[in-house]
Give the backbone structure.
Amino acid sequence: MQYPEPIAKLIDSYMKLPGIGSKTATRLAFYTIDMRTDDVDAFAKSLVAAKHDLHYCSICGNITDDDPCEICRDSGRDQGTILVVEQPKDVMSIDRTGDYHGLYHVLHGVLSPIDGRGPDDLNIASLIKRLQANATVHEVIVATNATPEGEATAQYLSRLIKPAGIKVTRLAHGLAVGSDIEYADEMTLLKAVEGRTEL
Amino acid sequence: MQYPEPIAKLIDSYMKLPGIGSKTATRLAFYTIDMRTDDVDAFAKSLVAAKHDLHYCSICGNITDDDPCEICRDSGRDQGTILVVEQPKDVMSIDRTGDYHGLYHVLHGVLSPIDGRGPDDLNIASLIKRLQANATVHEVIVATNATPEGEATAQYLSRLIKPAGIKVTRLAHGLAVGSDIEYADEMTLLKAVEGRTEL
C-alpha cells in the first residue's frame, strides 16, 4: 500500500526543505490535512507570492518587493556608512538592534575556494561601483560571519577598499553577552583578551 | 525595518506548523526564496491538493482520495480481521511490515477524559456498525499506542466488542528489536518478562 498521491506529493515537497527528513515531512503532511482550509490556502499563496514578488534590490542586493529597497530609498539614514553582510537575513538581525542607522550591502555568500566561490560570484562589483559613485561614504563595516571564510572575505574587501581612502572596520570578537567564560572556546577568549576595553 | 510583506506572511505560515518556531520559520522562508520556481509552485499546489482532494474513507476512516479507500475495496485482503489504530499514519506503519493482510479501522484519537474526549468523539460507532453488518469478522486487533490513554481505549473496545463473540487482541508489549535491556524502562521489562515465549 502507498500513501494516496496527494499526500505522497506533499511529503515530497516538505522533504525538499532543509533539515526535514521523511519522518518529519510525513508528520507535517498529516498535520496539514487537519489544518483549517483558510490557513492551508494562505500558506500556498504565500509560498507563490514570496517566490514571485520578491527580488534583490538593484543597489544593495537585499531582498525586497520594491526596487530600490526600503532602506536604500530612506534618505533619513546615514548615507556615509555601509555595513556589508553575507545574507539578506543578516540585515534584519543587525537592524533589529536599533543602533545602526546607515546603509547595507548584501554579498550573497563568502569567498570559499573549496566550494569554487571567488569574488566574481559575490555581489562585490556593485559594492565597488557604489563606493565610486558616492563620495559621501567614509566607512565600510564588514559584518561577515566569524568563520574562516567570513574572515578571509573581510580581509579581501579591506585590501580592495582601503586604497580609496575609505575606513574599513570589522565587528568586534569577544564573549557573547550573558555567556560563561568556562564554556567559551580558546579563540574567542584570545580575541576577548586582545580586544579588552578600559572600565 | 520590517521584512517585506511576502516574506513576513510566509514566515507566519511556516510558524503554524508544529515544532517550527520563528527562527526556523525565517530560515525556511529565506530558503524558499532561493528554491527553484518549479519546486515552490509544486509545493503550493500539493498543499492545496492535499487539503482539498483528501477525505476520510466512509468505511474505515483512513485518509484517501477515493471512497471507499484502496484497502476497503481490496477483496483480496482477509475480510475476517480488523486492526484498529489511532491515526491514519499508523495504517501505513503497520502495512509496511507486509505481514498483516486484513482490514483497518481508524479511531482518530483515543479516549482522554482530561482533554474531554469520550467515545462519541472517536470513530467507534462506525466500527460497531461494521462488525454488526459483517458476520465474517472473527478478530479485532487493537493497535492503539502503548500509552495510558491507548490502553484505556483498548480496554473500552474490548468490553464493547467481546460480548458479540468476536475475539479482541492487543499488540504485544516488550523490548524493541535491537534495543538494550540496560536502557529499557521498568514497565517495558515487566511486560517483556510476562510475555516471554519458549525457544
Observations:
- Residues 63-198 of chain B form a domain with the Dna Topoisomerase Vi A Subunit; Chain: A, domain 2 fold (CATH 3.40.1360.10).
- Residues 37-53 of chain B form the longest helix (17 residues).
- The beta strands of chain B are 55-56, 63-64, 81-85, 103-106, 139-142, 167-170.
